[in-house]
């Protein structure tokens, strides 16, 4: 199969297009013909050698993808060849207490597709059958390929952990990013008022187009004071901060 891969850490200039072996599936796995895949910042960290593990080379990168099921293992019953699917990139053992309780991301054997194994930047990718989900009608391959990490991350943040409710005021940092975009849309789905921060003027319209009620360019105005003014001093019910050190203390 054709694939995009690299043989050493560095920049995108090391990416090559070439022929790699076709994946061979086990009885509980599926082979997906990749129609679209998206880039995550994790892909850049892995490429640059910043991930704290030994990465096998040559390395086919990428975690988020969508495609068409090409082949299924003999134990797979819920999905069949020809179906359009989203590939969920979180890989775990599936049998430990954490996996069985729905906290597979806490599994001791958890890792993301395309980090410690070959990823989705190829014609085909193999994954456990539990890692594919049918694409809903009306969703393109490109849209579906953007869901894997970003939307599950934000659903966990806002719904599972945040307990978001109708009428909440939510601050989402980094509204121009993939997870920021997902957060805005999920928060609006629950009827929240959404405030978001961006670092460029062109991102203002992008954030507004996906539903943000108030957009703060933090390079032009202090976000804390802006939120205080917008909420008339009431501040926020939920803050989602995936930026880190620069914003965390003041977000609290």
Keywords:
Rossmann fold; 252 residues; five-stranded antiparallel sheet; Quinone Oxidoreductase, Chain A, domain 1
How would you sum up this structure, described in words?
- The chain is an alpha+beta fold and 252 residues long.
- It contains 8 helices and 14 strands.
- Helix 4 (150-161) packs across helix 5 (178-189).
- The longest helix is centred in the middle third of the chain and has 12 residues, at 150-161.
- The mean pLDDT is 94.
CATH topology call of the largest domain? Quinone Oxidoreductase, Chain A, domain 1
The domain tally reads 2
Query: In the CATH classification, which architecture of the largest domain applies?
Result: Alpha-Beta Complex
CATH superfamily of the largest domain: Medium-chain alcohol dehydrogenases, catalytic domain
Number of helices: 8
Q: Kindly estimate the percentage of residues that lie in beta strands according to DSSP.
A: 25-35%
Quick one: how many beta strands?
A: 14
Uncertain residue segments:
none
- Give the averaged pLDDT, no decimals: 94
The general outline is globular
Give the ordered list of helices and strands: EEEHEEEEHEEEHHEHEHEHEH
> Roughly what percent helix?
10-25%
What composes the largest sheet? 5 strands, antiparallel
Radius of gyration: 20 Å
Structural category is: alpha+beta
> N-to-C terminal Cα separation, in Å?
49 Å
CATH class of the largest domain: Alpha Beta
Spatially, the strands of the biggest sheet line up as 9-3-5-6-10
């Amino acid at each position: 199969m054709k694939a995009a891969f690299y043989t050493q850490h560095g920049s995108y200039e090391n990416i090559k297009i070439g022929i790699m072996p076709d994946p061979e599936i086990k009885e509980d796995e599926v082979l997906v013909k990749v129609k679209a895949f998206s880039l995550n910042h994790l892909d850049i960290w892995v490429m640059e050698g910043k991930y704290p593990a030994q990465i096998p080379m040559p390395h086919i990168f990428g975690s988020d993808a969508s495609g068409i099921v090409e082949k299924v293992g003999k134990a797979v019953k819920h999905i069949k060849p020809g179906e359009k699917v989203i590939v969920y990139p979180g890989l775990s053992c599936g049998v430990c207490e954490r996996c069985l309780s729905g906290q597979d991301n806490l599994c001791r054997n958890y890792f993301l597709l395309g980090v410690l194994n070959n990823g989705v930047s190829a014609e085909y990718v193999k994954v456990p059958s539990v890692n594919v989900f049918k694409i809903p009608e009306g969703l393109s391959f490109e849209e579906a390929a953007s869901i894997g990490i970003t939307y599950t991350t934000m659903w966990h943040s806002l719904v599972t952990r945040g307990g978001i409710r109708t009428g909440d005021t939510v601050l989402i940092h980094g509204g121009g990013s993939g997870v920021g975009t997902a957060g805005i849309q999920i928060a609006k789905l629950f009827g929240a008022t959404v405030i978001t921060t961006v670092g460029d003027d062109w991102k203002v319209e992008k954030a507004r187009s996906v539903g943000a009620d108030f957009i703060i360019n933090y390079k032009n105005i202090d976000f804390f004071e802006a939120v205080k003014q917008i909420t008339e001093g009431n501040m926020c019910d939920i803050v989602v901060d995936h930026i880190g050190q620069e914003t965390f203390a003041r977000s609290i």
